[in-house]
Amino acid sequence: MNKLVPILLVLVAAACGGAYMFLMRAPAGAEYTVEDLTVYPTEVPSGGKIYITALVKSARAGTVEVKFNIGGEEIPVETDFAEEGEEKLVAYEYPVSELGELQIRAGDLSRTVTVRTPQPARFEVTRLEVPSQVLKGSQTAVVAEVVNRGEMRGNYQGGLSVAGTQVSTASAQGIDPGERRIVRFVFTATVGGSITLENYTGSPVSLNVVEPFTRFEYVDLAVPSTVYAGEVRIEGRVKNTGNVENEITVQLTVNPSANYTVSPRARLSLKPGQESTVTFIFSDLSAGSYILQFGDLPSKTLRVEPKPEVYVEDIIVPEVAIVGTQIPVKVVVKSGTTGGSFSGTLEAKVEGSTISSESISLTLGSNETREVSRVLSVGNTKGICTLEVGGKAKSLRVLGYKDLYVAGVDWMEYNYTSDMRVPELNQSIHDEGRFKYTYQGTKTVGDQTCREMRREITSSQQYGARPEQNYDLIYAPDTDKEAFLFQALSYRNGRMASE
Question: Which residue segment(s) compose the domain that 87 sits in?
Answer without folding.
Answer: 26-116
